[in-house]
Structure formats: C-alpha cells, structure tokens
Amino acid sequence: MRLFPLRLSGLLSALAGAAFAQAPGTERVPDSLDFAVGHELSTPEADTRSERLVRLGPEAIPALFEALVTRRAPHREGHDAPLEWLELDPSQASEVRHALGMEPAQPLLDFLRRVDGDEARRLTVLGLLGKVGEPRDLPHLVWLLDEGQTRIARARRDDLQEAFESILERHAAAREEVLRAYRSAPDALLAGIIWAVSGETSEQRLWILTGLLGGNPEADPLILAELARMGRRLPHPMAEAVLSVTRDYLQSGEPEMLLSGIEVADSLEDVEALPILIDLLGHSSRAVSERALAALRSTTNLGYSGDPRRWQEWQRKAEEWRRGTAPKLLENVANGVPGRAANALMEISKWRVFRHELADGVADGLEREETELVVLACSVLGHLGSWRAVPALTERLKDPAPAVQRAALLALRSITRVDAGSDPAAWRRLAKGALQSPTSPAR
Fold first, then answer.
1. What's the pLDDT band for 135 if we cut at 50, 70, 90?
2. 151 by DSSP, 3-state: which?
3. Domain range spanning residue 343?
4. Is residue 51 a part of any domain in this protein?
5. What's the predicted TM-score (pTM) here?
6. Rounded CA gap, 337 and 316, in Å?
7. Do residues 167 and 160 make contact, with C-beta atoms less than 8 angstroms apart?
8. 87-123 pLDDT tens trace
9. How is 348-406 classified by DSSP, letter by letter?
10. Same domain for 146 and 15?
C-alpha cells in the first residue's frame, strides 16, 4: 500500500519505530532538525531517503509534519523548496497517525505550538487531524480553535465541523469522546459539533445527540430540533432510554423549550408522553397548546378538538383497552378459532397508537396454518407500520403459499417505504441495519 507517491509510509513507520535511537553525541537543536529534514526531503535520492531520515531520530517528526502540512521544506539558504509530490491520500491518511505513534496527536500539537498565531497553518493542521484523527482526538479539535481565542470566526467553526464529521465517519460509536469535546467547547463551537454529529441520520448519531442534552442548556433547543429531524427519518419504535431523556423537556417552564420537547415527542412517536401532551392543551401559551394538539393528532391518528376533557376521556378508555382487552385479542390472534382470530385482527387494526407493542403479538398470527388468516395478519402489520414486524414478515417471503408471499411483500414495502425485492436476504440486511442500536445514550 502506498501512502505517498514516494513511499513515505515506510519513512513514517521507520521514524516512529526509531524510539530516540540517535547516535551518542549527536544532539540537535530544533532549527537544525528543520533544515536537516528539509534537506533530506528535497534531495533526489528517494531510494535512501527513509534510511537517512531515520538517522535523525523521532525528534524529527514535528519537522516532518510541518513539511507535510505546508508542503515546503526549509533550506539553510533562506528559502523553502516546494514539495509538489507530497500529496496526502485521504483514503489512507489514517496510516500516518499509526506510523507516527501519535498518542494522541502529540506531534501535531507540538507543531501547532511552534506556529502559534499562524491562522492558515492552524486550520491546515485542523484539517489534517480530521483526516488522521481518532475519537480520542476530538477534544483536541476544540483546543485547536479555542486556545486563547475570545472570538471564533465562522470559517473556523466550519473547519471544526468538517474535521468532526471526518472522524465520526470512520468511528461511528465515539459517544463518550464527543461528549467530552462538547463539554469542553466554548459556546461559539457548540453548533458546529451538533451539526457534525447530526450530519448523518442514523441510530448511532441519534444516541450521541441524546447524550449531549443538558451539556449546555443554551444549545439544547438546537439538539432537540436535530433529534426531531432524525426522528422523522429513522425506523420506529425508538428506545425507551432515548424517549425518557427527551420526555423530560415536556416539563420545562420555558415555552421555547416546551415547543422543542413537543416536536421531539411527536417525531419520535412517544406514546408514554400522551398524558403530558394532553395536560399541555391547557397551557397559557397558545403556541404550546396548539403544538401539543397537533402532536396528539399525529400520534393517535385522531381528529379531536383541543378540549382537554375529550382527550382525557379517550386516554382513560385507551389505557383500559390496552391493559384489559388487547391481551385477550392477541391471544385469539395466536391461538383462537379462525373466526375469533379474524375479528381480533380487525379490532387491533383500529388502534394504531399502540402499533409497536401490538405488532409483536400480531406477528404470532403469521405462524398459523390458515392461509387466509396469515394473509390478514400481514395486511394488519402493514397497516400498523411497525419496524418490529419486519423480521417476521421477511420469513413469510419463503411461505409455500404465493398469496402469503405477496401479502408479506406488500406489508414490508408499506412499513419500510423501500422495495428490496422478494429476496429474504436483502430484507434481513435492511432490518439488521435499521433495528440495531446501542444499549443507552452517553450522558
């Protein structure tokens, strides 16, 4: 594998392994190393370049990094020779870090201190660290922009966001490291970090964002807005550990925060938040009460007015049905005589508000021997629209009855809004990627 056109990967590995292996009596001052590195990089004998640089020892690493970043090699004659051949391959750039033994990124930080005040080089180092960095370097990205700074320009925030995104693309589960960087960041950098995390819509990024809540209350509305955006695009249901964190914002005394919390509860389909949303119908802020009503209608698929008493009565009956009637209906779906099973399925299809917990029981009906009931169960699952049913429906694509295969495929398309064909393996891959999530958000 070639990291640089002139095989600098071997050079870097050799430097990292040199472990202060300088010959006795060959102490050098930093300036001498700068010139020595510049001389060796500029000489035409490329075949022996690695060996010559190794003899300079690992103290030459910062000087080498300066050459890599600036693409110029210092000379004693007072001018810098351009190194046009020094092109970093982004797809292989992380090799640089391991070749240099950066723990963590110390040569880059040392180099940065030497060019303190040089804005162009500071941002160039930030970009390089984004290419070669690892999760533990995320706090250093903040340090690069924040050290001694009272005002941070928009361009620098954009550079930070880009570097964050680059590292997170390679290390999706860097929750704890993102949280440490976020807590240490000044206010001016918080939005860039939040946008970097939310740049990809995935279950992992949702959990990382949830962990950032409370780190800086002033930035929580932005985090909640990004969570709401993700929630509209990700498969449901969401983990209770995420919902319980965002649900706390429905208790806020600030209308702006309440509106953000309602938006998230709506987009994440938080059924357990329904009683709180009903209480908010009587809020003194018209914006809050109207948004709570919209969330109730969206989650329940009902069109009631904003009268809290009407919703409270519905909530009471819904909970009675959920705890008393639903278990009996699901038992009939799995084991009842065909007539009762069919009636149970039709009744269940009316209660989409509890669709995720109902989907688990309806999926049991897919194991029945009666083809007509299995087809009906597929239809009801498609109507409920819960991703929990995807694995069970996928197995029915192999059913010997063509009618069941067609019904299962239609239900899968309805739930996922994706057409992965009739191959069960393709649907299994889709379900695996969509349904996996960490155990709890970083806090």
1. confident
2. coil
3. 323-435
4. yes
5. 0.71
6. 30
7. no
8. 444 344 444 444 444 444 555 555 555 555 566 666 6
9. HTT-GGGHHHHHHHHHHGGG-S-HHHHHHHHHHHHHHT-GGGHHHHHHGGG-SSHHHHH
10. yes
